[in-house]
Design goal:
3 domains, 20% strand, 533 residues, three-stranded antiparallel β-sheet, eight-stranded parallel barrel, alpha/beta, elongated, single chain
Length: 533
């Protein structure tokens, strides 16, 4: 009986550690790479590309250390290129280092675009064919599974279809276990990708050859996710991409969108169904390891992916979630949010909001709505500061008990001309229970110094605060016509291992506004632990 195509397994090849490491501003340590390997294995991806063995001391150490991890599912892959021109494969240092890395799977790339063969490699078309064949054959003869990435395949196909297909066929003849079609420049549109993948499949089918095809899409035309999905629909059974779409230039296909798209929209088997719930947490963890600010508007896993603003949307979702949500956010480990603003009606607050598990009466709701409107008149906005909203709501209903009390703080900024440097120091006094704390801390600026002082004072009482870090800080002038006396709104985004949250402060004094947002950020984290919000 012929197997239904939707029952076929789609292999996931993650290249966050190699292609993702080429993201501007991202630099993984060996420890970072090992953490990400464990996250990806926990997600259930099939292949994890670790990097170029021997290209730098960090990757040499990675391939040594990764052997000590007890992986449940994933295979570690070493990356490299075909042999250099005019030498034998056994003389090629890159291929030798792949063997010495101790992996069972190699992914090598080769040229399929005549332009690259003649201009980049500066060799003949025939020698390029030999380089592909010799390299794959050499690795196969040494017992490795070989994934061949046909670099610039789509551009090569459009330039010279016959030669591009010849490169694929020679890879098959050499024994490649999977042939991956790469849109390396990221310039193709979905219809082009679909058509060319069908042609490639027909090319092999006409020769009665069964070959596993894959897709590697870059995002320069903002089509990497769509191109990956249509490639699968037209015959590819192996997908390559990165968590959060990391990668050089505009990035790679975002696996946080591709995986749920294939599974939830098209019914393909990709990772274990139960692992989809881990997707949001893994996305945030990778952002944290990369020291990047999470993309709130990222589909499926972003903080705003299931956020609703305004009474009409909120009330509709409260009655039937399908009205404004394409999937249940819990399926991918995300959550629904109702943005609090002047557009919010009472139904928004009657709806369970941001973990605020209270039985709200009409009187309670009216009090909260009134408090919000008064605060918004003063310049506050809770649309992107849901954690400050939770604290405001609890305080309005007299249900909030503070975890500490501030008795005073002072910030000094000193310029030292002899060293041409600014020194910022914060002195803070606060009370926890019946104990007073008096601390001094330095920072890169007034806000950083206050943040450091606050944590220093509280850490022995609340050790969980050591895992919190400030990941974004935004300042907006509310009434610029007031000049230097204008009010500012400060939004702070904080992050721990399992979530992000946002807070707000408003004042004519930027230090006071920042301090208000900082205190809310700390108190919300402590409140969540106690109240299980």
């Amino acid at each position: 009986m012929k197997k239904n195509k939707l029952e076929e397994k789609i292999e996931v090849f993650d290249t966050t550690l190699r292609d993702g490491a080429q993201t501007p501003g991202v630099s993984f340590s060996v420890g970072d790479k090992l953490k990400i390997v464990e996250l990806l294995d926990n997600l259930g991806v099939d292949y994890i590309e670790g990097g170029w063995p021997g290209s730098n001391p960090k990757d040499i150490e990675f391939f040594k250390e990764v052997k000590h991890l007890k992986l449940k599912k994933s295979k570690i892959v070493a990356f490299g290129s075909t042999r250099r021109k005019n030498i034998k494969p056994q003389q090629d240092q890159n291929l030798d280092l792949i063997l010495k890395s101790g992996v069972d799977v190699a992914c090598i790339f080769g040229k399929t675009w005549k332009l690259h063969v003649e201009k980049a490699l500066q060799t003949t078309l025939e020698e390029n064919i030999n380089m592909i064949y010799d390299s794959i054959k050499f690795l196969k003869n040494n017992g490795l599974e070989v994934i061949y990435d046909a670099e610039h395949f789509f551009d090569g196909y459009k330039s010279d279809k016959e030669y591009a297909l010849k490169c694929l066929y020679i890879a098959y003849e050499a024994g490649a276990d999977c042939i991956v079609l790469a849109d390396t420049n990221g310039g193709c549109l979905p219809e082009e990708v679909a058509s060319i993948v069908r042609d490639v499949k027909h090319f092999f089918d006409s020769k009665k050859i069964s070959v596993k095809l894959g897709i590697h899409a870059h995002n320069d035309s903002d089509c990497a996710v769509a191109n990956t999905i249509v490639a699968v629909q037209n015959g590819c059974r192996h997908i390559q991409g990165t968590i959060n779409g990391l990668g050089e230039r505009c990035g790679n296909a975002n696996l946080c969108s591709v995986i749920p798209g294939l599974m939830l929209k098209l019914g393909y088997k990709v990772i274990p169904k139960e692992n989809l719930r881990k997707l949001t947490e893994i996305s945030l963890s990778v952002y944290e390891i990369c020291n990047l600010i999470p993309n709130d508007r990222q589909p499926y896993v972003g903080a705003s992916a299931f956020a609703h603003k305004g009474g009409i949307h909120a009330s509709a979702v409260a009655r039937e979630k399908k009205t404004y949500e394409h999937i249940d956010p819990k399926v991918v480990g995300n959550e629904r949010k109702i943005l609090i603003s002047e557009l919010a009606g009472k139904s928004s607050l009657m709806f369970k909001h941001h973990g605020l598990r209270l039985d709200l009466s009409e009187e309670h709701v009216s009090k909260i709505v009134k408090a919000i409107k008064e605060k918004e008149y003063q310049g506050y906005s809770y649309e992107n500061a849901e954690s400050s909203f939770v604290i405001l709501a609890l305080k309005t209903l007299n249900l909030y008990k503070s975890f500490f009390r501030i008795t005073g703080f002072r910030v000094i900024v000193e310029f030292r001309p002899e060293k041409n440097e600014l020194i910022t120091e914060a002195t803070l006094k606060l009370v926890v229970g019946d104990k007073e704390e008096h601390v001094v801390a330095e920072g890169d600026g007034p806000v950083n110094a206050l943040d450091n002082a606050l944590r220093k004072a509280l850490i022995k009482y609340y050790p969980e605060l050591k895992d919190i870090k400030l990941v974004d800080f935004k300042v907006r002038v509310i009434n610029p016509q007031a000049g230097t006396a204008a009010k500012v709104r400060v939004n702070i985004e904080s992050m721990s291992k399992d979530e992000t949250w946002s807070t707000v402060g408003v004042s004519e004094n930027i230090i006071e506004a920042s301090w208000e947002a900082l205190v809310d950020a700390i108190e919300y984290r402590l409140l969540k632990r106690i109240k299980n919000l």
